[in-house]
Specification:
Blueprint (H helix, E strand, L loop, with lengths): L12 H5 L3 E5 L4 H12 L4 E6 L22 E2 L3 E5 L5 H11 L3 E4 L5 H6 L1 H20 L5 E5 L24 H20 L2 E7 L1 E3 L11 H10 L4 E4 L5 E2 L1 E3 H12 L8 E4 L5 E2 H11 L7 E4 L14 H7 L7 H13 L8
Parallel strand pairs: 1-2, 1-5, 2-4, 5-6, 6-7, 7-12, 8-11, 9-14
Antiparallel strand pairs: 3-4, 10-13
Helix pairs in contact: 2-8, 3-5, 5-6, 7-9
Length: 347
């Protein structure tokens, strides 16, 4: 990586999006809504969030000024929410023509748990979303595409930490769909010269993470404690993940979108540290003030990876990336956020 520029040349978020028009697919989701907030804070002239609300929630966009009646677009001069499936080429063509974004961030996705129940739907939709945006980029409808991948595409770690050159070994239909979208986007870079770069995030956490159907481990633990139910850990709990705070990922995404040296590349974003599920649950129970809450181990989940830890050297070199939020501090903030809000019933 010695040929990569050092971070002193990387742009600040305001330099990337200040005064510019931006579109975020999956913008009402967990990470997407944090990205919308960060884009507005960095001075974007207009941010448009497109989301079909499969997992996203309108209330995630309250801070971005997108409050409105259900089923209707709402917002302000600087922000607009559009309820729309981002895989629909005809509708996305019309939206992009109307809004004229310079940069598109793609976070729209059907998640991993859905792929275990509806594999074809998950694969078809995720690839179609990427294909739609690549087609629009090829037609010159916008300048830059920053697409979100997933560390799940790597499978379990063969080497630690896991660099961008780590072999791909997807273990679920979701992971396979994300590996496929990465290849699709990079093929369009090479064939058509589109300006695209890919951020491969490891496990994000923080306020607004979905606590309904298909929820992640952190909101599940919080809600089960609140309900007085035992915590269920799949397998022995020694499987590891690299947890990164969603706000840190949003900042990295903006910086990568403005980094010329990242064009046509895939870049890991994580904390560069692995935490076992057992240790994470113990930290959460401590933050919840109930360290002795009952924990039970159940069968492993299909396709569960054993070990994950990001090599973030490339992100460090390209944009000076360094995660700002320690895991313990982020968990405290996340627990406090959930405790201020009642549980939402699963669909």
């Amino acid at each position: 990586m010695s040929g990569d520029p050092v971070h002193s040349e990387s742009p600040a978020p305001a330099d990337v999006v200040g005064g510019r028009r931006v579109l975020v697919t999956g913008g009402a989701g967990f990470i997407g809504s944090h990205l919308c907030d960060a884009l507005l804070a960095a001075g974007a002239d207009r941010v448009v969030a497109v989301d079909d609300l499969f997992l996203g929630r309108r209330e995630n966009l309250a801070e971005a000024g997108a409050a409105g009646a259900a089923g209707e677009a709402g917002g302000s001069d600087r922000f607009r929410f559009i309820e729309q499936d981002a895989s629909d080429l005809e509708r996305m063509t019309a939206i992009v023509a109307e809004e004229r974004p310079e940069i598109v961030f793609n976070l729209a996705v059907v998640p991993l748990p859905t792929s275990l129940e509806r594999p074809k739907f998950t694969m078809d939709r995720n690839v179609a979303i990427a294909g739609t945006l690549c087609e629009l980029a090829r037609d010159g409808a916008f300048r830059t595409l920053l697409a979100f991948s997933s560390s799940e595409a790597y499978g379990s770690a063969l080497t630690v930490p896991m660099s961008e050159s780590h072999p791909l070994d997807p273990r679920t239909p979701y992971a396979a769909s994300k590996a496929a979208t990465d290849h699709l986007i990079l093929s369009c870079v090479h064939c058509f010269g589109i300006d695209a770069r890919i951020l491969r995030p490891f496990n994000n956490f923080g306020p607004r993470q979905n606590d309904r159907a298909y929820a992640g481990i952190i909101p599940v633990v919080v809600r089960r404690v609140e309900a007085g139910e035992p915590i269920l850990i799949h397998g022995d709990g020694e499987q590891t993940r690299d947890f990164i705070f969603a706000g840190d990922t949003a900042d990295a995404a903006i910086r990568l979108a403005g980094c010329d040296a990242a064009r046509g590349r895939l870049v890991n974003v994580g904390r560069g540290a692995e935490t076992s599920v057992n240790d994470l649950v113990a930290m959460l129970l401590a933050a919840l003030g109930c360290p002795d809450h009952p924990v039970e181990h159940v069968d492993e989940r299909p396709g569960d990876v054993r070990r994950h830890c990001a090599d973030i050297d490339l992100a460090r070199r390209l944009i000076g990336f360094a995660p700002r939020t320690e895991l313990s501090a982020g968990l405290e903030e996340t627990v406090a956020w959930y405790r201020e809000r009642p549980a939402v019933a699963s669909r």
